[in-house]
Structure formats: C-alpha cells, structure tokens
Amino acid sequence: METVGLGLHFEELPMGRQFKTIGRTITESDIVNFINCTGMTEVLFIDLEYLEKHSDIRGRVAPGALGYTIAEGLLVQSTMQHTGLAFLNMELDVRAPVFAGDTIHVECEVIESRLTSKGTRGLVRTRNKIINQNGQVVIEYTPLRMIKCRDVD
Fold this sequence. Notes:
Number of strands: 10
Strand content: 25-35%
Shape: elongated
Largest sheet: 8 strands, antiparallel
Distance between the termini: 19 Å
Oligomer: single chain
Structural class: alpha+beta
Helix content: 25-40%
Order of helices and strands: EEHHHEHEEEEEEE
Number of helices: 4
C-alpha cells in the first residue's frame, strides 16, 4: 500500500522547480505559546498598551521567528518526511510584520541543486517566500538542506 505525505527526493528538486504550501492562520494562542516557550518576552510581543502608545506597529504582532518556524512546519509536513537529512545554512530577511489573524503560506523555488560526493544525497537550496493573505512577502529565506536520493534497487 502506498504511503502518502512522504517528502521529495533530491531527484524531484531540480534547479528552477517551484511549489507552494497550504496556508495557515497565525492565532493569538500561537503567539502566546511561542513567547512562553522561547522566553521572547519583548514588550512588542507582550504589552499591547506599550504598542499603542510607543510603537508604529498596530495589532498583535508575532515574532519573526514564529513566522519562520510555522513556515518550516508547513514545509516539513509537505516536502521532507523521510527525505530531509539535515538543515545546513540559511540567510533570512524579515520584510514585514506578521500579526495574529494573518494567514501565511510558503512559495519555494529551487535555486541550487547538486549531488554530494557520496552520491546518495544532494544539497538543495531554495528561496522561500512567506506570503500573507494580502500577497505581501513578509519573510524571505534561503535554506540549504541535505536531501536523500531515491533508493536504487
């Protein structure tokens, strides 16, 4: 019987391939749980009165790290089960805030893809754009991952 939900193998990630994830709405609970779990008790994330009086940000803002980690969760669920071997490097740019109530998804493009010397795995770098419900890119990052090749019989 076929198992669904497995990740993409190296051979399925050639240069130029593009895909996107499903969306996920960021909730107030997501923000509170993330802040409590990580200890990111920055006033921007825990004090709405401070935001109202002293900040240009209006609304319940999420840490950029929360937006990034939810995006990674969407990608793990859809592209890396049983095939992702290692997260090696990335550059990350936060371009706009993510707020409670925003729905984000990830659009990916493979920008680097090469076999390792071992030949049973490859290195794949993608350009990942986290996009909100208004079509705005809120975070962009370029992870380099080690990905399993298909098993050769």
